[in-house]
């Protein structure tokens, strides 16, 4: 799960950087998708920490 979380964070940050180079609706959609990936990666990291504590 930690690998998935790290990959989501990396792809989300890369997508957020690339979305600044895009114009119009496509840039907004790419930014929303990358923010979603970042939030999912953070969620996976939190779940990974909670599962290791049990």
UniProtKB/TrEMBL annotation:
- What keywords are annotated for this sequence in UniProt? Membrane, Transmembrane, Transmembrane helix
Q: Does the keyword Membrane apply?
A: yes
- Where is the chain membrane-spanning? 29-47
Protein name (database record): Uncharacterized protein
Instruction: Name the lineage.
Output: Bacteria, Bacillati, Bacillota, Bacilli, Bacillales
């Amino acid at each position: 799960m930690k690998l998935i979380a790290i990959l989501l964070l990396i792809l989300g940050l890369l997508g957020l950087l690339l979305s600044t180079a895009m114009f119009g609706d496509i840039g907004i959609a790419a930014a929303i998708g990358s923010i979603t990936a970042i939030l999912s990666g953070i969620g996976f990291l939190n779940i990974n920490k909670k599962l290791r504590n049990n």
